[in-house]
Write a structure and sequence with these properties.
- By secondary structure, this protein is an alpha/beta fold.
- The chain contains ten helices and nine strands.
- Helix 2 packs across helix 4 and helix 6 packs parallel to helix 7.
- The longest helix has 15 residues.
């Protein structure tokens, strides 16, 4: 016998819970179905006995089914909170992860809140939705923040987010450092590049996200190698990092030793890693020396 449609908000949430949907996700999807802001979870609790109109009930059921099939909540609602900002996201870009805020924290520690005699220049490579670049721009409005991506679709999402949030970004299209080949050197370069190995067992669960933003060669390190090598091999007159500038890279849970080794071999100094809230080495980086190694 089929389950009857829910009559109230509480019944809708109970049905979602019975299907295995986490409580927070159910709240976010029901609020979206009702056309209410994502932060109004308290409103749901206060109105749990309210009637759920049939159209909103059908919409909520459809959202729950799509979520059960693996579609990210951010794509279903079109919104994702990241570093205090509400971004608009869709299947053109990677769903921003909370772990990436570790990279933003580290980057901000290297960008003084009080600007020196000249504006500091930072670059977010492979910006996607613009999450990292916009977080930096929101916290360091005096800095000159650039962002690049090979995907025109991704840059359209980033540009729309920047416009809606009234944050200034210098956006460039191109493959990694080629996007800024004509730009002056930066004080800081950050990136959350693709770092999942081709054939990784987790990829089927990420089928709704753009593959180019996820995978990078047999060991997942091709993009990271390309970024490091492009910086290390640039002629002094075409340097991407200023002397003393930093490169920070997000990577997979078990890739920190390999990324540190790549940075050290390329001549970076003060090579180190940062852990996320789960205690996993989530980012690695190094400082470009005053003189390039021979």
């Amino acid at each position: 016998m089929p389950t009857p449609p829910p009559a109230t908000l509480a019944q809708a949430l109970a049905q979602a819970a019975a299907s295995g949907l986490p409580r927070l996700e159910a709240h976010m999807l029901l609020l979206h179905a009702l056309g209410r802001p994502a932060h109004e979870r308290a409103w749901l609790l206060a109105h749990d006995s309210d009637a759920l109109p049939a159209e909103q009930a059908r919409r909520f059921a459809s959202l729950c089914q799509r979520r059960a099939a693996g579609e990210p909540v951010a794509y279903l609602t079109g919104r994702k909170a990241f570093y205090g900002l509400e971004l608009q996201v869709d299947a053109r870009v990677l769903d921003p992860r909370d772990d990436t805020e570790t990279l933003v924290d580290w980057a901000l520690s290297l960008l003084p809140a009080q600007a020196p005699s000249r504006p500091l220049r930072a670059l977010d490579l492979g910006t996607g939705s613009g999450a990292i670049a916009l977080a930096l721009a929101s916290q360091r409005p005096q800095a000159d923040i650039w962002a690049s991506d090979a995907s025109a679709d991704a840059l359209a999402v980033a540009a729309a987010n920047a416009q809606r949030l009234a944050l200034r970004l210098n956006l460039r299209q191109g493959d990694w450092l080629r996007a800024v080949a004509d730009a002056p050197a930066f004080d800081l370069i950050v990136s959350n590049p693709p770092y999942i190995a081709e054939g990784d067992a987790h990829l089927p669960a990420l089928a709704h996200e753009p593959r180019l933003a996820l995978t990078s060669g047999a060991d997942g390190l091709d993009a990271i190698r390309a970024i490091i090598h492009a910086i290390a091999r640039a002629a002094p007159a075409r340097a991407h990092l200023r002397p003393g500038g930093w490169l920070l890279l997000e990577h997979g849970h078990n890739q920190a030793p390999a990324v540190r080794a790549l940075l050290a071999a390329a001549g970076f100094a003060r090579v180190q890693s940062r852990r996320d809230l789960a205690g996993i080495e989530r980012c690695s980086g190094g400082q470009w020396p005053g003189n390039k190694p021979s």
